[in-house]
Amino acid sequence: MNQIIYLLRHGETVFNTQGRYQGELDSPLTEVGIDQVRQNADMLKSILGNPNEWKVVSSPLGRALQSTKIICETICYDYRKVETDHRLSEVAVGEWAGLTTKEIEHSWPNLVKDTNAFSWFFNAPKGDSYDKVVSRLTDWLESIKHDQKVIAISHGLTGRVLRGIYAEMDKEQALKLEVSQDVFFKLSNKKIQKISLEFDVN
What we know:
Elements: E1 4-9, H1 14-18, H2 31-48, E2 55-58, H3 62-75, E3 83-84, H4 101-107, H5 109-112, H6 130-143, E4 149-154, H7 156-166, H8 171-174, E5 184-188, E6 191-195
Parallel strand pairs: 1-4, 2-3, 2-4
Antiparallel strand pairs: 1-5, 5-6
């Protein structure tokens, strides 16, 4: 039987609405974010079957755990059984955490020069490198290879890199992947399928 991983991102947060990079910082979900998680959880419930057959793993960051609680309530899964794994945490942006793009460009103009919209955050002082994130996510995928059914709740940048590794994409391809908060992804057989309200779950 092939492994299935459902990969979800946390809902919109206060920092998201302000254009601030969170990294390992945290801010709570907005009302819109809560609705996004509920919508995704409803779609997930319709395709899961027995929720107790699934392993649920979450990033330990607050916005992911807040989303995970909503998902567990919706799919009727005991939140106390959820595992947290730091390898699913968001890409750390070091000294840029909590700042907007404009604030970063003003204070570190040389570090964002000659980068593009998809890669510049890996230049953050004391932040994660792309290779470091690839290493920890590759390690995580290896650690769950014997689990047939996995639901993972993670973050925007981390989710991009994870899907890129899974589908054997190069860095440039991976960093351009979608990071919407009202969709989630099915990973199976080295393929990635987007699940959204337009997706026919029947």
